[in-house]
Amino acid sequence: MAQHLITDGYFDVGYEYVNIDDCWMERQRGPDGLLVPNPELFPEGVDGLAKKIHAMGLKIGIYEDYGTKTCGGFPGTKGHVDDDVNLFAKWGIDSLKLDGCYDNVTDFPVGYPLVTKALNATGRPILYSCSWPAYIRNKDTIPYGDIAENCNLWRNYGDISDSWGSVQAIINWFGDNHGNLAAYAAPGSWNDPDMLLIGDYGLSEEQSKTQMALWAMMAAPLYMSNDLRNIRQWQKDILLNQEVIAVNQDPMGKAGVRVWQQDKKHYEYWTRPLADGSYAVVMYRRDAGGLPRKYTATFEQLKIEAGSAHVRDLFLHRDLGVMKGGITAVLNPSGSCRMFKVTVMK
Known about the structure:
Helices cover 27% and strands 23% of the residues. A hairpin with a 5-residue loop joins β8 and β9. The longest helix is centred in the first third of the chain and has 15 residues, at 108-122. It has helices at residues 2-7, 45-55, 81-91, 108-122, 144-150, 164-176, 178-181, 205-217, 233-239, 242-248, and strands at residues 17-19, 59-65, 95-99, 127-130, 153-155, 190-192, 257-262, 267-273, 279-285, 293-298, 308-313, 318-324, 326-331, 336-344. By secondary structure, the protein is α/β, with parallel strands linked by helices. It is globular, with a radius of gyration of 21 Å. The N and C termini lie far apart (47 Å).
């Protein structure tokens, strides 16, 4: 997989982490109390793999859990924070995903910052992904200020599954809750709606474009979940779309939000301000029936103060010229979108 990141162009557009998920370790800690990698999976150890990954110019991430066990039932880090974090730093780990199984959410306000402190004490830059808010049932009580202070990114919602229904549920939730989420997105702190499914099995080409577009609008981390050895060209084209990735990686780091919705069944519009003064816009059609239809998103609906603006289609890679009053586009049914960069005419 790491080699495909390099040879197939993914690294060139910004994909740089190879991440190990749960179940990488033995069921018991070693006699010294330290975590032990599964020798069949990692015959050279995690540190040996890390050296190979680093030699390719890539970075490596690993998974743990703040509770007594990981979600897969392997040793958790509770009671072993300093030992585990120092071990990860010794191995050359560049990213830590810390889950929240087998623990009480009332411990999170102490536990997750405790790991932050331990990570900082290693002196090694390690990206810190927290599952802190994902386990809190009353979403109105999530302390996003504290989370953003301690974590680089955080999972807000349940695990994604390889289906359009799952993606749509996440989009709906982020759209409904953008007031609590977008305010804390900034360089170094990101909402994480979970992995991209592009290149897996459950999404059509149109739905894959929509996930890529809206993850870019949310300023979300782009984690691929696919097998890069077996991927279709259209899936690869979506993942390597540099114009969409540029929106995702915009240096201002301000997340886009849903600005218009025609009830909860048919269509909606999202807008994200960009560092150069322009805007990214997504027109997203939700309903599953019928034929392609023409939609017009007015600049007023898009929350863009403009009489006219230059519009570029980011999937067609085509300048559409100057549009007055809004954007008109044809959308297919069942989860399709159009994505634009909008530059207001002075």
